[in-house]
Structures are given as C-alpha cells and as structure tokens.
Amino acid sequence: MPYRKVMYRLYPNATQTERLETMRGLHQRLYNTALEERIRVYQEAGRGLSFADQCKVLTQWRRISAGLASLNAQSEQVTLKRLHLAFQAFFRRVKNGDTPGFPRFKSLRRYPGWGYKTHGDGWRLHAGENSVHGKLYLQGVGHIPMRGRARTTGTPVTCEILHKAGKWYASVTLEIETIQRERGTAIGAFDWGLTDFLTLATPMGIETVANPRRLKNQLAELKRLGQEVSRKIRMAQERTGRKKGFPVSVSLRHAISHLARLHAKVARQRQDFLHQTSAGLVKRFGAIGTETLAVKNMVHGGGAHKKGLNREIHAASPAAFLKMTRTKAEQAGSWYEEAPTREIKPTQRCHGPCGPQCGPCGPQCGCGQLPNEKKKLSDRQHQCPHCGVTCGRDENSAWVLLRWLDARLSGREPSEVWSGGGFTATTGHSAGNEHETHAIAV
Hints:
Blueprint: E1 3-10, H1 14-45, H2 51-64, H3 66-69, H4 73-96, E2 113-116, E3 123-127, E4 132-138, E5 142-149, E6 155-164, E7 167-175, E8 186-192, E9 196-202, E10 205-210, H5 214-217, H6 219-240, H7 250-284, E11 285-291, H8 295-298, H9 307-316, H10 318-332, E12 335-339, H11 341-344, E13 381-383, E14 390-392, H12 393-409, E15 417-420, E16 423-426
Helix pairs in contact: 1-4, 2-4, 6-7, 7-10
C-alpha cells in the first residue's frame, strides 16, 4: 500500500500550547538521557545499548518519573527509535570512511517534536468533510483545531508533532489504496537554470518558467534581522561576561522569533513553487527529459566571489525539484528520463541533428557537434562554429535534451520497463494487469 504525508497547521489554545511545550521538553530530556545512558554503558562495560535494551529501561524510568508516565508510551519509544537511527547513521558513516558525526545532545530550541506510531494510541485524527481541516486529538492535550487537507484520502497510520518558528504542525502519514495523478500526453525536455528557472523545449518551440527568487527578495530584511540578533547576543554576552549560558531577554527572543518566521516563510514559498511547477509538468507531459545535476559539485569551492552564486543555487533547490518531478511522474505513470550530463554535454553540444518530425530544416536545427573551445559559465549565448546556429545557452541545452529524449523513446514499446538516471518507469501493459496506454504526441 502506498503512503502519503499530509501537513496540518495546529491552532492550540493557551492551555494546550503550555501542555505541548511541556511534552516537547519531556521528549527532549528523554532523548538526552537515553544518549547519556548509551555513552555511560559503553565507557563502563565496553558495549553499546540497543533499541530493545533502552525500551526495557524506559519501563523502569516510567515507574519513577511522573512526567514520563504522563506521556504516551509509544511516543516515547519513537523518541528512542530516533536516537537508535542516529547511532546507525553514525556507524554507517564510520564504516564508509565519511565524517562520523557522533549523535549530539539537543537543546530544547533545536528539538523539533515527537511522534506517534499507531493511530488511536495517544492520538486520533478527526478530519473534516472531504478531509479538509478538522481536529487532532492528543492524549493529555485534548482536541486541537487544525487546518489543511489531504489531496488523496486514506487511513491515518503515524503522526509527528512539529514545532517550527513558534507554530505547531502535525505531519500525518496516510495509507492509501492508489495514488491518482493526472498525466499529460505531450513530450518535453527542460534545462534548469537561475536566470530562468526552467527553459522548456517542446515540438512547438521554447518556453520559460521565471525564477521567483524568493530568498533574494527577502535578503535585505534577513540581513537586517540577523544583524539585530547578533547585536543583542553580543550585548548580553558583554553584560554578563559569559559567551555561553547567558540569560536570554524578551527582546532577544522576539528578534530570534522574527528571524525564524521570515526564514520559514521563504521556505514555504519555495516549497509551494517547486510542488506547483513539478505538478504542472507532469500534468502536461507524458514524457519528460532533463539532465542529471551534481548539485554538490556545482556549489563546491569558489571562495567569496562565488558566494552569491552558491546561495542562489541552494535557494532554487534543483535537487529537490528533480526529486519531486521524478516522484510525481512515477505516480502518474509518465516517462521520466535524466540524461547523463558527462556523456551528452547538453550545455556544450549544438542541438540536433533534426529528425523527420521537425519537417523542413529551420534555424532551430543544428549539427550536434561540440565546440572547438569549451564554453565558460559566463558564456550565455550558444554560437556553433560548425553550422552557425545562434541561440541562448539554456535554449540550446533544452533542445539537445529534447532530441536525446526523442531518440531515447524511439522504437520503444510502451510496455517496456527501462531505466534512466537511476529511475525506473513502467507504463502500458504489465504482467497480469492490463492498462490503456496513453499516447505521446510528437
């Protein structure tokens, strides 16, 4: 059964908010105490504690601690499970030779929330009509009004309570029978960029999707708020003579909260844009092509003079966008392919050669050759020394990807299962399960 996550915004009253804060503090202290216990046992006995070991110890802790006894037992096991996963990731990094990153003690400010394992045990979702809004029941808190909706209805399975920038959220996992997403019938390929977020090539021509630059629009205000927070922290340090552990004033708390809320707003705007753009592509196209992006290499090095470019790349979130598009294409049953960048070289190669679907050769048709001298990142125009084609760099890259995708699909039966860029898509007829195959217009 497939699963989907739905995020609801919670609106607790003053009493419920106080109780939620208390519960978050108890889970944070449980996490830190369990981490301390693992370290102590290893230092004294030379062995580690497993998740099962700590669950047994938790039973004893609940007998002597009224705070822990007031919490749902399964939610406390989820907290211990998170610590267990943190240790598993630590040992995996050690084994692979990566930076280990030993699990750290968490302050309350950096502790996001807690989770529940089973619907009906400590929590219950009471969604409104058509799964829109409703209330969330939490043991020890009561019924909390919430806003949000599930695009596909399903059965609640697990729940996470999150605290972000002074607001409370519930992330609910739903088990659904089938994921239904509308898919298109056209073919298209896009090149990701910063000047234009997408340069889209279709048999009808070139289109662009503007880059909203949400972070850049708020950069001046973020800088001002960051300087205000730094100034108030520095004043508190000078006043108390302590670099750490100084008392946080109401004014400093407000400044930190204001900065966090603005960062959260930019993140929500970015997430909404990525979801809408990726959903629009899948809704329109039955075959989508792009190139594999090594984002880590794109933002590596460069020093201070490349800081602004790296920030814009991170703000545009290309890896998250490709992942969303890939996932939505899989849900819709569309074709999705990522061209091997090192092999195809779409930003360097002249688009072409043209195929029979293009009709008479026009200015959009090229020779498919690489330039004599490699283009620099600052070269925003494509000028082929072999055939004389001139166009925008991103436009040329989109044409190259479209030609590659068309060649990739040529002669293939819709029932085939094929892999591209690490993603496997299945459309058409499958063993023992007949489906009507959608046409791809070219």
